Amino acid sequence: MKKGVLRLKAAAGILCAAAALCGSGCGKAEGNSGGESVMGRYVEEAVSYDGEKDTFVSLIREEETMRLLDLYGSDVISRDDGVSFEDAAVTAAGGGGETGRILSLAGTAEGSRICMEYQGGAKTWRLVTADGRETELEGLGDQDYPSFYQGGGSFYMSKGFEIYRIDPESGETRFLTESTSYPLCLASDGEMLYVIHGEGVLLYDLQENQVATRQDEVLSSFFSGKQEEFLNGETSILLYPLGEDIYVLTHDGIFLHKLYGESMERIVDGGACAIGDIRRGFAGMAVTEGGKDGAGDGIFTVLYTDGMLMRYVKDYSLPAEPEISLRVYSLYEDGNIRQAVSAFRQKYPELYIRYEVGVDPDHGATKEDALRNLSTELAAGTGPDILVVDDIPFETYVEKGVLAELGFLREEMSEESYFANVTDGFATEQGLYVIPLTFAVPVLAGNAGTLAGAGELENLSQLADLLERESGGQAGTAGGQAESVIGFLSAEEALRLFAQSSMGAWRTQEGTLDREAVTEFLTQVKRIYDIQMKNLPEEIQNMSFSGTEWGSGENTLARRNGSYGLAEALDICIMRFGEQPFCAGFLSSATEDFPMTVGKLHYMDEEGEYVPLPGQCFGGCLPATLMAMNSGTKHGEESRLFLEYLFSAEFQGAVSLNGTPVNRSVYRQRQQNPGEGSTAPYATMGYALSDGSTIMHRVCWPSGADFARLDGLMESVTGVNYCDDRIYEAVMELGQAALTGEAGIEETMDGIEKELELYLAE
Amino acid sequence: MGLRKNWNYTLRSRRRLRAAERFLFLLPSLGGASCFVMLPFGKMVVSSFFTVLTNDFAGFRNYAAVFRNEAFRLAVRNTARFIAMGLPLLLLGSLGLALMISGSFRLDKYKYMYLLPLAVPASTMVLVWKLLFSGQGFLNRLLGTHMNFLGEESAFYILVGSYLWKNLGYTMVLWLAGLRSIPEAILDAAKVDGAGRVKRFFLITLPCLRGCISTVLVVSLLNFFKVFREVYLVGGAYPQRSIYMLQNVFHNWYVNLEQDKLAAGAVLLTVVLGTVCLLLQRLWDHGEI
């Protein structure tokens, strides 16, 4: 009996221990006692200052002064931690740039500066002290392009892999060390020099005049592998050492790291402010320790490469986690949305808005992973408020009731103010759930007479007939044959080009693959492919002049369709095929790129004209940045406010969007010549040809007739030409074999059907 | 009489104590299983009768949609085929290996080597498959062909082969545990009586393994339903038709927000698996296996 009771006690003991363990792990985490929220959050404040914004190249802070360094010497300084700026006396001797072009510049808060100037084919290196003494530096080599940096009262220079220190008074240059990889950025607090390079960070001890015996592994691993992104302009990095504290600025935010410490603590979230905007690089950062009253967190002042100056101050009256946090989500980076979020944040600073991108190659997140995560969030009711549904299977989302009906938005869009055929492009009997922000129209360009004489030109068969006729005898070309008839160089390019005007026809109303339509598409594109390839020199077949990778980049139109904008197609035509009779591609950013596109077209042929690209969805446009709203959003009012702002003339008119804005009033407004009254040409275009010669051509602002033709094209849009991503990619991938002759059309179609069978069956 | 009554009382209270003790020991795992398995499963059963995201009652519509779904039917066929081919091979192969090892002192030393494939990550295994069976793989070089074996019907046999390679060792260890529990004395007595190897196997070893067979069978069967990673790494969300398994269709439904169908499909799968397990248990109880 006693033994039994003992065992029972043991069991009860184990049970209690298990319950205690479970309780400790599974209980709801309470951030603080008493349910009070933690206060204090960094807020962004725009700082205004006078001067040409884009000529300020650096921000320097030393002791009590903060200086914005102007390329041409018109610096401004602040003595109140960056709250206000006043003109600094123009630095003696200007600091360079009076006669030549400044290639690299650095300065100190006191006003001395060092620069490299390029003039008449020669480079000069100059040091100008604050009191105006000018020293020409010699022996720095003529072949290299160095970068200058400032920190701790000295100048530093990276030249190739070599690192130098330059005395700010005498200009004496001393070699310090050599980096193992290309230096991306140098920073110093006078005691330690930090060399950020592609493989990490090199610490150079300035007191000991040698590479530091102990390197910072955590800091180094934070930067390792950034070289390619940095050189491609995809990321921007700054480092600001302040004693033991090291502040790091990247597009992910501002991080604090203690020298030789174990962590990188993010103190400002880049995704919630302008720091996250990858289109803006960082020109300089200053840190004011201790905050406003010398107690609390630091104040950060960031100068962006476009001259925008922002302060980040911790506001203790705000909760650390905002009550309303609007989330905008897209699968891939979208430049239009990045601009919208940035502009919205500035217009409504009281609303906290985050832009999240699902596919993150840096962290190995694929499209599949991103969609899975999104599904989990949506099913759990914690999904983003606003969805950008390009590349997302939004039809299922509509079917499942995930997306909100956007009738409220459409009601405010009058037909006079918006391109209704585009905004209503995704309307169904159930309602309107998706509205494109911008669009582009696929066009065929050529001689006006030839196009007019071609008769009806609406489908690919008629286009193939025309190309067949025209490819027969081109005057002025070798052998009477044009090398290139319409521009593309490979089967994939051909498919992607003509899909622009056809892909919307590849799916039946039941959602299955329209075999007949895809067969017809492949048959006609093969005819065109054969015509194009007939005279194309073998050495350039299957090459790509555009260099743009499909599936990447922040421009949705280019990411989906490749570099097949008409402007790019014309560039290739001018540079490689002087006598090419036709050109095709989508006409995007119509009111901005349009003057250049027209200029190129008229350079090719004074009677150059364009018509909608023939295809199976003739008259359809390519929609981009497809906006939708989560029906389960907890911030309906704020989400609606964001969408209304997105489609407003105020936003669309203030930024440069990828694609033609759907707001018609903005489209019209952009037809105003910015240089009205001036006789100067709008722009000059220049090409360096492969034979060494160059072409320079002055581009004038388009005439009224040019704009009338463009209006006609825009008004002729009958709807959207859009295709499910998986079907589109299957046709693009497998269709190539049909074009090159490796497989018959029917065989290819069997392959496409087989590839899509499971997807469509699900 | 009084003593007898007292004795009965003591016996009853001891039994009650024992029952309470068992219950208390079981309670943590029972609680965990209820919280993390039974309750979510119950929620899923309920969800299968609703449109998940909008919460509209759907009745049996989700089940009907699942039955009508061609992809689901194909996945069921493929999974059934995979089990029908793989399970007997796995059970017989691993049993054969276990018998070989248990009978040889020299081989017994290396028995844990057979568990090594379990430690190989799926991604590494898939990389090896690709090196061997892709269009430019070693096998094609050997045969002088340019066939993508992973994109054809042959992908199914590659999957079966690699599954067997990976799981043979584990199943063999389960069999070995069963074989070790057979008393040596019985086998020795049979040997002395002149029973040969085959006779000893069918008349002594196999009947003694009865307890082990049902465990190995159920564990292996359940594992067969879980094959996914290898298939996903080879063919992504939509692999070659012959290796499109139930886990693929469930994964894709999840990604495409078809969670009502997913719930109905999962309930159906649980019912089928539960029925099979109960059937096996019944056969086992009746001594038919």
Q: Which CATH architecture of the largest domain in chain B?
A: Orthogonal Bundle
Second CATH tier, the architecture of the domain at 438-625 and 659-761 in chain A: 3-Layer(aba) Sandwich
**CATH topology name of the domain at 438-625 and 659-761 in chain A:** D-Maltodextrin-Binding Protein, domain 2
Rg of chain B: 25 Å
Work out the helix count of chain B: 14
Provide a descriptive summary of the structure in words.
The complex is a heterodimer of chains A (762) and B (289). Chain A has 762 residues and is an alpha+beta fold. In chain A, strands 25, 26, 27, 28, 29, 30, 31, 32 and 35 form a nine-stranded mixed beta sheet that branches. Chain A has a four-stranded antiparallel beta sheet with strand order 1-24-23-22, with no helix packed on it. Chain A has a four-stranded antiparallel beta sheet with strand order 2-3-4-5, with no helix packed on it. The relative contact order of chain A is 0.08. Mean pLDDT of chain A is 81; it is low at 21-35, 92-97 and 473-480. Chain B is built from 14 helices and two strands; from the N terminus they run αββααααααααααααα. In chain B, 76% of the residues lie in helices and 1% in strands. Chain B has two domains: 2-34; 62-285, MetI-like fold (Orthogonal Bundle). Chain B is flat, with a radius of gyration of 25 Å. The chains are: A alpha+beta (762), B mainly alpha (289).
